[in-house]
Predict the 3D structure of the following.
Amino acid sequence: MFNPEVPETAVAPPLTRADRQQQARDVTRRAILDAALELFVADGYTQVSIRNIAAKVGYSPAAIYSYFASKDDIFYALAEEGFRLMGAAQTIDLPSADPLDDIRLAAWRLHEFSKRQPQYFALVFLDRRVPRLARDSERFAFMLEIKAAIRTRMQRCIDHGVFPASMSVDVALRLLLAPVFGLVQLRVSGRLLPTEDADALVHDAIEVTIAGLRAGAAQRAQGATTCLESTSEASPQTNEHAAPPR
């Protein structure tokens, strides 16, 4: 008997055949990406083949090609996921009354991302042989928003007199983020000593850099780009064969 005081439980409509097929494809696609991410990070991008990925998920190479046109296409899908996760962490916080705290947090969020998603960080930032991400690629246009959000935080510091008015936003960001990237790379690659505290090192690196920026120590650097831009857009082949500095 119907009881008006007891809410009826909503019953989801049955899945159509097309829905079930799409669900199955989504599950398989996810399995391919997870397997590829693990192999790329463990063995290096250039050492992994479509056949290797297929063997890990238990499919034929031909089946993999029905989901991704190439190994590069698999990488681009993973890179997009990784950068979107990183971008979500950078844009989750609203601007506060203290611009210096905001730029501190932006640098710290990068460290936190590497701890939560070490495989994505290693793939997009540590392996220099992965495909180049084109600046004009519509797929990665959202990265411009991430960069703009971080630049806005640094610009607020300059506008509020926290850093010298003559300071370049991009130079300041490069100097702030570079030591964070360096320490994160040491941690992710297992090169920190057991007695070294990665959190403490990153915290101190941020504070030392901020102190230097406030004192106007950045006098020589010009034309810098942010770490996010240079690592995502630099050509691996160019970096690998570049002439050493004199």
Observations:
- The chain has two domains: 15-68, 71-241.
- Residues 50 and 71 are 6 Å apart (CA to CA).
